[in-house]
Every structure is written in structure tokens, then in C-alpha cells.
Design brief:
With 251 residues, the chain is α/β, with parallel strands linked by helices. It has a domain of 136 residues: Rossmann fold. The protein has a six-stranded mixed beta sheet with strand order 6-7-8-3-9-10, with helices on both faces. The longest helix is centred in the last third of the chain and has 18 residues. The mean pLDDT is 92. It binds adenosine-5'-triphosphate (ATP).
Length: 251
Amino acid sequence: MLEIDELSVSYRTGKKMIPAVGPISIKIASGDIYALIGPSGCGKSTFLHVLSGIIKDYSGLVTLKDEGLNPQKHDIGFIPQNFGLLPWKNVQKNCLLSLTIKEQKIDSSLTERVDYIMNKLNIKSLRDRYPSELSGGQKQRVAIARAFIMNPDLLLMDEPFSALDALTREEAQELFIDIWNQYRPTTIFVTHSIDEAIYMGKKIVIMSHCPGTVVEIIDNPLFNTENLRENKEYLKLSAHLRNVVKKGWKI
Ligand SMILES: Nc1ncnc2c1ncn2[C@@H]1O[C@H](COP(=O)(O)OP(=O)(O)OP(=O)(O)O)[C@@H](O)[C@H]1O
């Protein structure tokens, strides 16, 4: 369980502290996947940066698996918009990065897991290439592989598919959900796409204008359903979300 209690962040600009996000209180069960949508500048990235440990200066309480959030103790995977691959390491080394940092012994069951994930994401033949030698979609698949190889307590993604063209994006979303369903790490992702939120979010969190708070949490009945876009419920949910956006992110 990830428990967030009255979390707020303000940034210092000159002598002033400007509120950026919160207060936010939310409980996320282990193995859930949450889509976070909200207006530009409402604090979505700031929120993810707290959970990933990049921002340490916040008020409120965040606990993961009954312990105060601590990136040194918890395994937290973060896929940023630009995929976050290290340009000087090849695909294989990027994929194994978290294991190398933790000095984890790579035994046969771990090798099997790494092989399985790399095969599943179709990147095994790219293992000796460097990020500059990969397409956007390939970089994205490496970033996803790296996150799942890490086996994180919490997986965070900031608009993970936004840099991809429409077709590659759909393909990447499908691959992601396929592998997510197998390992089910607790996941929070930010998206600007209503379609992506409905396809990939078991719960959809709507945030208000800056400083962003939670306006609504939708239990998405369409998560993991086949032929999603042909479903009547899809049109209903999509219309509701579009209406919220039109009304200025209010319900
Ligand atoms: N380093 C910073 N210093 C001061 N203010 C900042 C800083 N980073 C972000 N902000 C402000 O904090 C607020 C939240 O920013 P954040 O990037 O978290 O929003 P966001 O919802 O992710 O935006 P977008 O959807 O446009 O990517 C914004 O008003 C932004 O201008």
C-alpha cells in the first residue's frame, strides 16, 4: 500500500514560496495502476518527483509498505518523458542498471527474468546498441524493460508515451499493459491523453488547477477489457472526462 497523507509542495521563487501541488491524500493498493490527469502546470510532475525521491522538501506524510518513503530502502522505478536512458551505456547495461547499482547477484532465476522481459519487449537483438542508435519506440521499450527488470515497489511514469507517434504509441501501450498484467507493480503514470488514461488506468485521478488537488477518482470499469474503443462505456467515460476538461477541470 502507498499512503499519501496531506502531501503539499511549494517552490521558492525569490523570497516567496509558491504552492505547486496539494494538499493531496490518497491510498493506493499494492498492484494497482493509477492514471493521473490534470491541467498543465497543476503539479503532476512535482507529485511524481516527490514519490521518486527527487523532491525531498515537502509537507505531509508518504508511506510505502508501512514505512516512510525512502528511495534508499524502497525500489522505485521512474520512466521520465525522455525515457531516462544513460547515453554512454548500451541497451543491455541500461536494462541491468538498477541491479548493478544494488550490486545484486545475477543468478539463474534473475537471468531468466531478464531474458524473458527483453524477449517480450523485443529488444534482445538491440542489446549492444547505444541509446543514440535507437528509435523513439525502441528507447521506450528499453525504458519499460529496465523498469520491470528492477521489479520495483513503485513504478512512476511521466507521460511515458508522449514522444511517440500515434501507431508506435498504441503498440507501446499494448506491450506495456501486457507485461504489467504479468508483474503488476504498483504504478502511477501521468498522461495528457484521455484515451491513454482509460486504456491504461485501473483508476483515473483527475486533478484541479495549480496547486493541484484530487477532484475525482474514477474506478475504471474498462480497464483490461478487449476492444475497448467499441464499448459503449468507453464513449460515456471519455465524454465525462472531456466534459471535466471543458468545464475547467471541475466535476
Ligand atoms: N523548479 C521550479 N521552481 C518554481 N516553480 C516551479 C518549478 N517547477 C515547477 N514549478 C511550478 O510548479 C507548478 C507545477 O509544475 P509541474 O511541472 O509539476 O506541473 P505539471 O502538471 O507536471 O505540468 P505539465 O502538465 O505542463 O507538464 C507549475 O505552476 C510550475 O510553474
